[in-house]
Design a protein that fits this description.
Elements lengths: L12 H21 L3 H7 L5 H9 L5 H10 L11
C-alpha cells in the first residue's frame, strides 16, 4: 500500500486534502450568498477580513479557521469516513 506524500512536515495528507476541499467549498458558499467579511465577523469575532480575503484568493487556512468561517456563514458539513 502506497503512502501519499505531501511536502508539509507537520501535516498529514488527509488533513491537507480536507483543508483544500473545505477551502473551495467555503469560498464558493461565501460568493454564492454574497456574504461580506463584516457580516461573517458579526457571528464570529475572531474572523478577520484578512482571513476572508486569503480564502477568496485561494490561500491556505487551517482547519480550525475554516470550521469557524463555515459555521459563521451557515454552512453544514457532512463528513464521511471509510475504513
Amino acid at each position: 500500500m502506497g503512502v501519499c506524500y505531501i511536502p508539509e512536515k507537520y501535516k498529514c495528507f488527509t488533513i491537507s486534502e480536507l483543508e483544500s476541499q473545505l477551502s473551495v467549498a467555503v469560498a464558493e458558499h461565501i460568493q454564492a450568498h454574497g456574504l461580506t467579511a463584516v457580516e461573517i465577523k458579526e457571528r464570529y469575532p475572531s474572523i478577520r477580513a484578512g482571513h476572508i480575503a486569503k480564502l477568496l484568493r485561494g490561500e491556505p487556512l487551517c482547519i480550525k479557521m475554516l470550521g469557524a468561517i463555515s459555521e459563521a456563514t451557515g454552512m453544514r458539513w457532512n463528513l464521511e469516513l471509510a475504513a
